[in-house]
Amino acid sequence: MNELLNLVADPAAWAALVTLVVMEVVLGIDNLVFISILSNKLPPEHRTRVRRIGISLALIMRLVLLSTIAFIVGLTAPVFDLGITGPVGSHGEPGFETAFSWRDLILIAGGAFLIWKATKEIHHSVDPDKSDDVLEKDKVTVVISNVGAAIFQIILLDLVFSIDSILTAVGMTDHLPIMVTAVIIAVAAMLLAADPLGNFINNNPTVVMLALGFLLMIGTVLIAEGFGAHVPKGYIYTAMAFSAGVEGLNMLARKRGSKKDH
Predict the structure, then answer these.
(1) Residue ranges per domain, the chain?
(2) Cα–Cα distance, 58 to 178 (Å, whole number)
(3) % of the chain exceeding 90 in pLDDT
(4) pLDDT beyond 60 at 4
(5) What are phi and psi of 145, to 5 degrees?
(6) What are the tens digits of pLDDT across the range 166-194?
(7) Is residue 23 a contact partner of residue 184, using CB atoms and an 8 Å limit?
């Protein structure tokens, strides 16, 4: 109790909390985009429920991982080494790691899954398969299957994003109460933004392709991180913000063009 009171009275703790909340919200955007795209594949009456389930699972997973911080930090210890000498960089550092930890393997697997999923969705958008149309009598079974598949895929990606999120939190503060508070606030923000973002993506087909492009980029970055090639997050989110800004201008131009036609 005294520790909590000391944290409340410590300006540095508040600064750490605000910084960590911002970082967690930014990291949560990737997760939220993935959940929105998956949920939009479902019938409208199931979308909100699946989004809330996915985000709730993200919160539970993060809190469980926070309770096992020592184990999570241990995931960064190498478990095997390929023993290959990679190319040397300009400053004499190795071009990529050959010693892999469980975190590296999880990031590589998660990145590969994201690339596979985004590529599959892009292919479906460009060349929709008419065989996906089902008879009326089979719709209930298909919906149940789709909801279950969506939740399962959300759980897999929640695990990847949660580990990345918690390792970021551990690197920014040593105080567990600050980590827990930041995670809860960030997930609450995700919960509030889930439906507006999902509806916005669903109502703007070109944004769907942009979001799938984001997922491809994020998947590639996760794989690169797994192989030891660190990509500064600032570059990633700057590219995403720039692309979103260009798409916003395109949407504004289309909207004004449609008004002139009428």
Answers:
(1) 2-231
(2) 18
(3) 0
(4) no
(5) -65, -45
(6) 776 766 666 777 778 888 888 888 888 88
(7) no
